[in-house]
Structure formats: C-alpha cells, structure tokens
Specification:
186 residues, alpha+beta, Cyclic Phosphodiesterase, Chain: A, four-stranded antiparallel β-sheet, 3 helices, 23% helix, binds adenosine-5'-triphosphate, binds magnesium ion
C-alpha cells in the first residue's frame, strides 16, 4: 500500500492515558517493581489503563467509534493505584488498585453499552484495571507499594501499532470527564 493511502484497518482501544506527572509516577513505580521482579520495563510513554479493547477496526468505522465515545457521560475521579500484581500466564507485572472507584466501573460500563449498541465487539467479562509495568518477568512476592494517585479527568481512543520491538501507541482523541464539583456548604 502506498504511504499516502489511508490504512484500511486500525488496531484501537479506549484507555485512561496519564498526564505527564502521573506518567512519571507510574514510571517510577515501574522502576521500583523492576528492582523486585526484574523483566522488561515498559517504556514510560506506553503506560495506560485499558478501558475497552476494540482490536482491528476498518478505518471507515472510526467516526462511528468516535460518536460512541461522544455519547458517554461520566464523572472524573481519583484512582489510587496501590497494589502490584503478577499474571503468571502472561509473565506481566502490573500496578492496580485494592479498591476500584465506582466511577471507573461506570465509565467502563457506559462505554461498553455505547459500543455494543453500535455493533462493536465488547468483552463483557469483568476486567481488572491495571497498568502493565513489566513484561517477561517471573514475578515473586508482592512487595508493599507506594500508591500512585491518578486524577482521572479524561479518557482516550488509542491506536496500537506493533513493531518487532513492541507495541507503539498514539492517542487519536480525548474526551473530558465531568469535573466533580463539591456541594456548596449549607
Ligand atoms: P503486544 O500485543 O504487542 O504484546 P500490547 O498487548 O500492549 O502489546 P495491544 O495488543 O495492541 O498491545 O493491546 C493494547 C491494549 O489493549 C493493552 O493494554 C492490552 O493489554 C489490551 N488488550 C489487548 N488485547 C485485549 C483483549 N483481547 N481484551 C482486553 N484487553 C486487551
Ligand atoms: Mg496484546
């Protein structure tokens, strides 16, 4: 295919994409976990939490996908990532949460409903929100972790391109979440 032609298929997913300060904190967590578990650290600019994985999508469906996200109304929230985890079958070391905020679950649910209504494939199995920090690690005892506080104020549609050296991600579009306005004192 000529480089000037639009690609026919895009590998896409919705995710929480960190701001610079949160990315730095997640990257430090990756460095810390690597000291415990070794393996291959994920590059700082890949760090994210997947909300919904869409996979291969015809480029012609992109506008419909964007409209799905336009229709999602959800609130901003604080996500405290305070637990390291290990998936043996994938040899992945990750950072997750003891307690998943209700707003996070609502965001995922509303996004999935919107995607499903438009005919996109949706995985309805419960997911563990996590940031992959290490690959090809053998894990070990779960070390006590310094929490990362992520103020989640938006979500993103992301394109994934896999090269021989791993996946590269590009944020295509972002959607703000409604800011939490504290009730005025009586
Ligand atoms: P690679 O596949 O090259 O090892 P990757 O898994 O990071 O890298 P993608 O496969 O494009 O890259 O996945 C993008 C994001 O979506 C990652 O967070 C990944 O964990 C998640 N993901 C991929 N496949 C699925 C799936 N079937 N269900 C849920 N999440 C998925
Ligand atoms: Mg993958």
């Amino acid at each position: 295919m000529a480089e000037t032609e639009a690609p026919e298929s895009l590998r896409l997913f919705f995710a929480l994409w960190p701001d610079a300060a949160t990315r730095d904190a997640l990257n430090r967590a990756g460095k810390w976990l690597h000291r415990h578990w070794d393996g291959r650290r994920m590059h700082a600019d890949t760090l994210h939490i997947t909300l919904a994985f869409i996979g291969a999508t015809p480029a012609a469906r992109l506008e419909t996908l964007i409209a799905c996200a336009d229709a999602v109304a959800a609130d901003a929230y604080e996500f405290t990532l305070d637990t390291a985890g290990y998936w043996r079958h994938k040899r992945i070391g990750w950072l997750g949460a003891q307690r998943v905020p209700a707003q996070h679950a609502e965001l995922v649910e509303r996004l999935n409903e919107s995607l499903q209504a438009a005919g996109f494939p949706v995985d309805v199995r419960p997911q563990v929100p996590h940031v992959t920090l290490l690959r090809n690690t053998s894990g070990g005892d779960i070390p006590q972790c310094r929490p990362v506080s992520w103020t989640v104020g938006e979500f993103a549609l992301v394109k994934s391109v896999t090269d021989p050296d791993g996946a590269h991600y590009t944020v295509i579009r972002r959607w703000p979440l409604a800011p939490n306005i504290a009730p005025a004192p009586a």
